[in-house]
Amino acid sequence: MFNDRIYNFSAGPSMLPLPVLEQAAAELTNYRGSGMSVMEMSHRSKIYLSIFEETKADLKRILNVPETHEVLFMQGGAWLQFAAVPMNLMGAAGKADYAVTGNFSKLAMKEAQKYGQVTIAASSEDRNHTYIPPQEALSVSPDASYFYYCANNTIYGTEWQYVPETNGVPLVCDMSSNIMSKPIDISKYGLIFAGVQKNMAPAGMAVVIIDKKLAGKEFPFTPTMLSYQKMIDTDSMHNTPPCYTIYMLGLVLKWIDSQGGLTAMEKLKKERAGILYSFLDESKLFKSCADKDARSDMNVTFRTGDDALDDKFAKEAAKAGFENLKGHRAVGGMRASIYNAMPVEGVIKLVEFMKKFEMENK
Ligand SMILES: Cc1ncc(COP(=O)(O)O)c(C=O)c1O
Q1: Which is nearest to 186 in space by CA: 63, 72, 89?
Q2: Which atom of ligand 1 is nearest to the CA of 102?
Q3: Disulfide engineering: 294 pairs with which of 11, 132, 239, 257, CB 3.0-4.6 Å?
Q4: Per-residue model confidence as pLDDT tens for the chain (362 residues)
């Protein structure tokens, strides 16, 4: 099935489902008899608009997006949302709460500090982001414009196992590395954003899901392209959107449907992560980095405790066809990113390889 493809454990951009790549390849030069590639189509043409509308409708259906919310396709990746969120939502109150549970929430917090008063509502920095603070540890300011958290910490391998209760303060969430991995209750969120390059599409875009009543209050200096209200009014087409990335997202969404939707994605992610964590729990060589009750099902971080051995492992694994297992430079060790497109078989084979490495390096 996999021909000459490797198992790519990259944190993002990461594996895309093989049938999606094959379909994109088959349609590359001539999209369904149009005589053109999707890359060559005018974004205002009838044929492209049908791709765009179907993709957006599929996304809304799969994620069960309520009528109160709108889906936007925005450029600049997740990073630009770090600025767009405060510019649009800080509003008159000028205050926001940030839960800092990893690198990306810290960076988002720093970006927000340029636009208003930011309070750290919780932090896991004291133990190098190996855990997620419980609800009791969150200090939610009732007068904050919003409460911000990152649902899955890609670098540290931790994932929030609950949705924070904010007593009416709009909840803003960076779901870049776990969106589409399980069903979510969108109505609990004021805004969700996600860079698409992990579980949704090739890089080049962020998906934003916004409660429409939060839009329209941006600071006057907000660039037009970062105004959520402008994006809502123009259906994400104020300028030329990332047409091909949107088309690829459409193919990935059809693939998710073909696998049984988000309940099937959730079952599969539990299976993949379960295989890896069970092995880590019994291994004498490898240790999982994150606290047990905060472990991510998407990014599994582990180490041997010996940097040279970690290095040797990542190198030998790559030679054996398991690529990109080296941990992020901020934490070291190893990280296996196992998003939706990673077959269960890839994790089984990785564990077999880890067992062999353990035997040889006692
Ligand atoms: C959780 C999270 N947020 C934000 C980002 C930044 O994404 P981008 O490169 O699209 O700006 C990443 C990238 O890996 C991420 O994992």
Answers
A1: 63
A2: 1
A3: 132
A4: 446 899 999 999 999 999 999 999 999 999 999 999 999 999 999 999 999 999 999 999 999 999 999 999 999 999 999 999 999 999 989 999 999 999 999 999 999 999 999 999 999 999 999 999 999 999 999 999 999 999 999 999 999 999 999 999 999 999 999 999 999 999 999 999 999 999 999 999 999 999 999 999 999 999 999 999 999 999 999 999 999 999 999 999 999 999 999 999 999 999 999 999 999 999 999 999 999 999 999 999 999 999 999 999 999 999 999 999 999 988 899 999 999 999 999 999 999 999 999 999 98
Query: Which SS3 state, helix, strand or coil, does residue 327 take?
Result: coil
174 lines ligand 1 (CB under 6 A): yes
**Tokens matching residue 327:** 């941990």
d(Cα 198, Cα 179) in Å, to the nearest integer?
9
- Tokens found for residue 188: 């609990």
Which residue, by CA, sits nearest to atom 5 of ligand 1? 78
Domains of the chain and CATH, by start? 32-257 (3.40.640.10), 261-360 (3.90.1150.10)
Diameter of the chain by CA atoms? 63
- Counting ligand 1 atoms within 8 A of each CB, the residue from 177, 296, 298, 324 with the most, and so the one to mutate, is 177
Give the nearest ligand 1 atom to 11 CA: 14
Token representation of residue 309: 């051995």
User: Are 5 and 18 within 8 A, CB to CB?
Assistant: yes
**Token representation of residue 273:** 């992560």
Ligand 1 centroid to 202 CA: how many Å?
Answer: 13
Residue 108, both tokens: 């988002």
Say if ligand 1 is within 6 A of residue 85 CB: no
**Where do we find the tokens 């066809």?**
321
Q: Name residue, tokens 């001539």.
A: 30
